[in-house]
């Protein structure tokens, strides 16, 4: 191995000289800083490039300015807030089932919309429900200048109401001029899911800038959207045994397998394909019967189904088994119409004293619509003693409860011949029902498709000073 001794010595000498020079320089700088520090008595910051509180705050704060809010053209505030990582978008003004009746709520950190505090210019606002939630729809959106979202430490300042944080909506201040905005949006392909909105704000300073007055009007409209209009939401992700066609239940008094096989043989169904004691029999509109099948059982499928296989049938499971698709008629987006008028006044009496006043009026209407209701959804319980209703029905044994099903007497004139053959084969006894064998009433569960949808309207008028 060859080594250049002269080059090696030169490098070592240079390194040693550099280290010595650095040490000397560092000593001089420290000595100079110490001397200068002894002379400084006061440090005054006259300007800063830090424009946002979230850059220097001890607590996690997210600030949103009016420019960012207007760029999205959302007609409700929660639509934007639900995009933030610290907000749990479990429900909003578009939520139908489970819904909040069109309210615009914010749920910080997933702890519940009643576990965070909503402020306007740092002051608490009136709650909208008994659970202490605040409906953001009641706050004039056209007046909002920015939003601050605090997700840590707010409880120390505001108490247990802000255990998950606080949302502070800052209204316009010292606004001068006229601002008019109009927005329109809809689905580019389907031309639905329409949203329209416009707002007008007028403000002016007076008394040399000591006072400021602002008035604003805001109108928003959102078109409803049904789940059937979107393939990703058209099919329910869960099953149900409440069918519009009705489903026969036979606890304690099942028909014989021979009778079931004989009836379904007339439909061309092999014997044993429909178990007699599995609550599988439903009703076709022509008086015949069908079997709904058994989930995850390839040997027991849907038999003799005579209705169209359309969106009312949950096609994720059919023909392995039948389940009603209740999501077809559920709302994906709730309709909304909102009108808001607001006014704000500020006046500086002195450098340390300011008076202010605000007036707002809000009126909005929203609707929810659920699928036809399962009937009954509560227990059917007999009455005891000498109550006239007990004597009149005579179907349920006094003191017992029949849960979740309707009780029908065998004298019902709408019983088809095929179904009566199955009922007449019964030889058991359900102690909760009056009678036994073929004379005992039978149970069915159904969905009230004949009654239409369950529509709930929420009209909120609000006036605050």
UniProtKB/TrEMBL annotation:
The keyword Isomerase does not apply. Its main location: membrane. GO terms for cellular component: cell outer membrane. It is found in: Cell outer membrane. Keywords: Cell outer membrane, Membrane, Receptor, Signal, Transmembrane, Transmembrane beta strand, Transport. Residues 88-102 have a biased composition (Low complexity). It comes from the Bacteria. Residues 86-109 are annotated as: Disordered. It is a multi-pass membrane protein. InterPro entries: Plug_dom, Plug_dom_sf, TonB-dep_rcpt-like. The keyword Transmembrane applies. Residues 1-22 form the signal peptide. Belongs to the TonB-dependent receptor family. This is TonB-dependent Receptor Plug Domain. It comes from Rheinheimera pacifica. The lineage of its organism: Bacteria, Pseudomonadati, Pseudomonadota, Gammaproteobacteria, Chromatiales.
């Amino acid at each position: 191995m060859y080594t250049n001794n002269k080059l090696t010595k030169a490098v070592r000498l240079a390194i040693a000289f550099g280290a010595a020079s650095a040490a000397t320089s560092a000593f001089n700088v420290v000595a100079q800083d110490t001397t200068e520090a002894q002379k400084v008595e006061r440090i005054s910051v006259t300007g800063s490039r830090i424009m946002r509180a979230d850059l220097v705050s001890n607590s996690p704060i997210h600030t949103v300015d009016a420019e960012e809010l207007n760029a999205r053209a959302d007609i409700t505030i929660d639509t934007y807030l639900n995009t933030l990582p610290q907000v749990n978008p479990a429900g909003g003004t578009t939520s139908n089932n489970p819904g909040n009746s069109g309210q615009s709520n914010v749920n910080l950190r997933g702890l519940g919309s009643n576990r965070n505090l909503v402020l306007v210019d740092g002051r608490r606002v009136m709650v909208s429900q008994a659970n202490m939630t605040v409906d953001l729809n009641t706050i004039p959106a056209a007046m909002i200048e920015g939003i601050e979202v605090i997700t840590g430490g707010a409880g120390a300042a505001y108490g247990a109401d802000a255990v998950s944080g606080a949302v502070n909506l800052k209204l316009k201040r010292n606004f001068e001029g006229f601002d008019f905005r109009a927005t329109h949006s809809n689905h580019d392909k389907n031309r639905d899911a329409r949203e329209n909105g416009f707002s007008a704000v007028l403000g002016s300073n007076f008394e040399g800038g000591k006072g400021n007055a602002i008035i604003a009007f805001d109108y928003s409209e959102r078109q409803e959207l049904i789940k059937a209009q979107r393939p990703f939401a058209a099919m329910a992700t869960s099953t149900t045994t409440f069918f519009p066609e009705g489903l026969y239940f036979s606890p304690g008094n099942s028909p014989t397998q021979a009778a079931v096989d004989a009836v379904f043989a007339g439909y061309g169904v092999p014997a044993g394909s429909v178990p007699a004691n599995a609550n599988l029999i439903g009703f076709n509109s022509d008086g015949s019967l069908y079997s709904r099948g058994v989930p995850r059982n390839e040997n027991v499928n849907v038999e003799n189904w005579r209705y169209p296989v359309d969106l009312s049938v949950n096609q994720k499971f059919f023909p392995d088994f039948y389940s009603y698709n209740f999501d077809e008629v559920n709302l994906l987006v709730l309709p909304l119409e909102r009108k808001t008028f607001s006014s704000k006044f500020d006046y500086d009496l002195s450098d340390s004293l300011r008076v202010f006043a605000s007036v707002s009026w809000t009126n909005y209407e929203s609707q929810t619509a659920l699928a036809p209701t399962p009937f009954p959804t509560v227990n059917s319980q007999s009455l005891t003693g000498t109550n006239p209703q007990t004597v009149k029905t005579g179907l349920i044994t006094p003191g017992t409860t029949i849960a979740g099903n309707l009780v029908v007497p065998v004298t019902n004139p709408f019983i088809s011949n095929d179904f009566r053959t199955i009922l007449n084969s019964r030889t058991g006894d359900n102690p909760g029902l009056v009678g036994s064998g073929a004379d005992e009433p039978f149970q069915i569960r159904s969905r009230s498709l004949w009654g239409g949808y369950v529509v709930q309207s929420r009209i909120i008028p609000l006036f605050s000073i």
